[in-house]
Amino acid sequence: MRLFKLELQKNWTYPGFWVILGMHYVFLITVLFNLQDLAGSIDYSDNQYGDIDLSLVPLLQFPDIWHNITYISGFFKILLGIYVVIAITNEFQYNTIRLNLINGLTRLEFTISKLLLIFLISLISLLVVFSAGLIIGINNTDTATGSMMLDKSIFLLGYFLEILLYLNFALLIGTWLKRTGISIFVVLIYPLLVEPLIRWQFPDVIDQFFPIKAMDQLIVFPFPKYVGIEVPDTIPFTAILIGLAWVFILFLLTNLILNRKNL
To answer: Could you tell me the residue ranges of all domains in the chain?
Structure first.
């Protein structure tokens, strides 16, 4: 609680906390509540999955809604990652980390405090997606029973773990590079270009253990199921284990880098 209060105090009064996270959640909620309309505006003429029009399928009905909205919501985690980078690089830029250490905080406790911040942001994101999904699902499902609403809710856990993993990755990069601009660049470019090029050289049996690939395996692309293509309706237990392992590994690496830095 001491570390949590310290981290909350740092961020609660920082305008960037409210601006960046506010933008993220407002944009996310807007997209989720207009998902069916947005799906209807997409051109499907060159769709690789055949004749699929998402405006005509039950995207927002229980139980499919949990898989669909958690997959869509995953695209918006970039803003959260940017904020985590800013939060950690500001510590180095303004020497608040040095002040914390002088005041008796250990480097491990400092790393844990950032992990608590990440956990808080991930939990808020989960609650936002869960609340939005519940409201949207009830409004779009004719007969929404309790069991129907809980069915496939495992994807909410997958979404929480996806955010947790991505933000720990952002924390690692920010701690390693210490500079905001280049850290944000790496956090953006690594998942899109660097890791795919590295994974391309490895067979699938090894490919699945890379961090971004592990994150992507938690919630797979759900929409081909509407044209008869088989899509997993749950999250493989191995994907959850690999994701959890990477959260732990990234935390250890962050603490290791912090211990070796001359502050």
So the answer is: 2-260
